[in-house]
Structures are given as C-alpha cells and as structure tokens.
Amino acid sequence: MTRANEAWESLMRAYAVLMKQFNAEDVWGDLTMREYDVLYTLSKCGSPLRMSELNRHVLLSQPALSRMVDRLVDRGLVDRCPDPGDRRGVRLSLTPAGRKTQQEIGRPHARSVTRALSVLTPEELDQLAAITRKLAENEER
Amino acid sequence: MTRANEAWESLMRAYAVLMKQFNAEDVWGDLTMREYDVLYTLSKCGSPLRMSELNRHVLLSQPALSRMVDRLVDRGLVDRCPDPGDRRGVRLSLTPAGRKTQQEIGRPHARSVTRALSVLTPEELDQLAAITRKLAENEER
DNA sequence: TTAAGGTAGATGCAAACGCATGGAACTTGA
DNA sequence: TCAAGTTCCATGCGTTTGCATCTACCTTAA
Question: Which residues form the HTH marR-type domain (chains A, B) (predicted)?
C-alpha cells in the first residue's frame, strides 16, 4: 500500500462520512444534494455557464445533468437559453428564485460544514485546501 | 467564506475530478465503481461484515446496498449467510471469485491512484492522509 | 413472562441514473 | 466549398437509486 493509495482511501472515506452527515441534516428543503450542487455551482462560477462546463464540476453523467437541468428549469430555479455564439449550446443561469433558494439552503449548510470541519486547526484547513486544490487543478494526465 | 468552507469545497472538487478520471479508466471490467467499492471494503475490512457496517463505509442508502449485495451474490462474488449470533442480520464475505475480481481490478486501479496523486509530495500525501483520517474518525457531532 | 420499543435487512414503487445513440451545429482540410 | 470528423446537448431504454414501509428479531423493563 503506497502513501498515495492510503491518502486516497482516507480522502474517499472522509468524503463518504461527511456527505452522509450533511445529507442527514434537515436543511435541503425539496432539493437533493445533487440539485443543490448544481445551483451552488451556477452561483459560484458566475452564470451563464455552458452545460459542458457545469458538467465538469458536477459528479454526474452528461445525460443525467441534462435532465436534472430540465427539471430545475421546470421548477423555475434555472434559466436555460440558447447561446447566441454557438447554436449547439445553451447558457445556464440561476433565476432570482433559484438564487434565493440556493442562498437559503446554503446558509445553514455552510454552518454544518464549518461545524463538521471544526476538528481541524486553521493550519490543517489551509493545508487541506491547498492540497486538494492542487489535485483538482491537475485535471489531465 | 470561511476557511472551513473553502477547504470543503476544494475537497469536493478534487473528489469529483479524480472520480471522473478513475471512472473513465478502462479497468473496471463489468463492475461499476460502486460495486468495486463494496468488494474493496469487504476485502479491506476483513470479512465477514455486517450489512450495516458495510453501509457505513459505502455512500449508498441501505436499500440500495441491500440490492447491490443481492446482485453480487447472484454473480457469485459475495457470500451472504445468516449471522448465527443475531438472526436478523447477515454476514457478508467475498467468495474466492470475488476476491480474485477485486484484486484484478484493484491492481491497475491502485496504479491510477498513484499516478493521479503523484503531483503531491510525500509530505503532502502524509498530511492529506492525516487530515482526512481525522475528519472521517470524527463521525458524530 | 411479556408488552413496548428499537434495530437489521428486504421489498414496493416512482424517480433518477448511465450507456448508447441521435440530430444539429461547428471545425478542419483538401 | 464541402465532405469528414468533432462537439454539444437531448432522448430511448433498461438498470439502479432513494423513500417509505414491512417483517422478523433483539432488548428492556415492569
């Protein structure tokens, strides 16, 4: 077992444990965590976002994301309009209602995150952020 | 945005990026990553394992796990037998075929993991493992 | 001993997923 | 300029998922 494999296994385990914890919290309203993730990504990355770009951030297949966006559009949380520059593509953005929903869920969820990670020291938090950022940025190889 | 929230977002993003990378690798045979995860957990945690124990390690609802184990039993990869000490429960273990399959997939996958994490220094790998272990162990609060 | 409450895992069912594929629009090179 | 290849997103379809619920078994306490 190499160091790399131990680190990855430990990361996966932490992810699973925390995701379960967060999922069990009663803050999601009538959204799933995955749906919230889409709203959050749209709010964070700065709309409008392309489908493919959004898909890069969300752990979901392209067809599944396509249909989830469908549903969010139907529910009035996301706006999907054709991209004038590339007529194959779409431009996705939050509606005002979508932004509101994201914020209302995001606030208590952010508190849960803070609480769950409060076992780490500020130095550890910085290290964790730096290391995982390095991993995520190294998208190709 | 607190440090904790930045760290968590970065961790999630790294997880998503790496999972997509691994999923795209052609090493999974006729298993899904989630199915492999079950076999891996059984091999790592030392069988026999209770359903509920297995469920703690796998990011899947209890019913979904129950049915996945069904399928793995049907395919001859997992053995499920009643627990003599608690007749509600079951004892899950790998069959020889299951162990073989896990190893055959695990080997190349482990190499992918090593490669993907090779952007980190040994010190960073140790820090990552230590920090995420701390997070996972703090299961309750 | 037994009734009340809790825990382990299975099952019905609607919703969501991934894979394969489709059509339309962009890009490239001859 | 236009045929071949690529990219973008949507759709058909069988499989898997989560929620709610069920049954069976264990535990506690009166």
Answer: 4-137
One-letter identity of residue A127: Q
Place of tokens 């799933």: A32
| A residues 104-123 lying closer than 8 A (beta carbon) to B | 110, 113-120, 122
**pLDDT tens by residue, A2-25:** 999 999 999 999 999 999 999 999
**Straight-line distance from the first to the last Cα atom of chain A, in angstroms, rounded to the nearest whole number:** 22
CB-CB neighbors (< 8 A) of A127 in chain B: 127, 131
Q: What is the pLDDT of residue A140?
A: 54
- Look at residue B141 and tell me whether its pLDDT is greater than 60: no
Give B77-116 pLDDT, tens digit per residue.
Answer: 999 999 999 999 999 999 999 999 999 999 999 999 999 9
Q: What gap in Å lies between CA A52 and CA B40, rounded to an integer?
A: 32
| DSSP classification of residue B94 | E
Helical ranges in chain B per DSSP H: 3-24, 33-45, 51-57, 62-74, 96-116, 122-137
Compare CB distances from A136 to B14, B113, B124 and report the shortest one's residue.
Answer: B14
First to last CA, chain B: 22
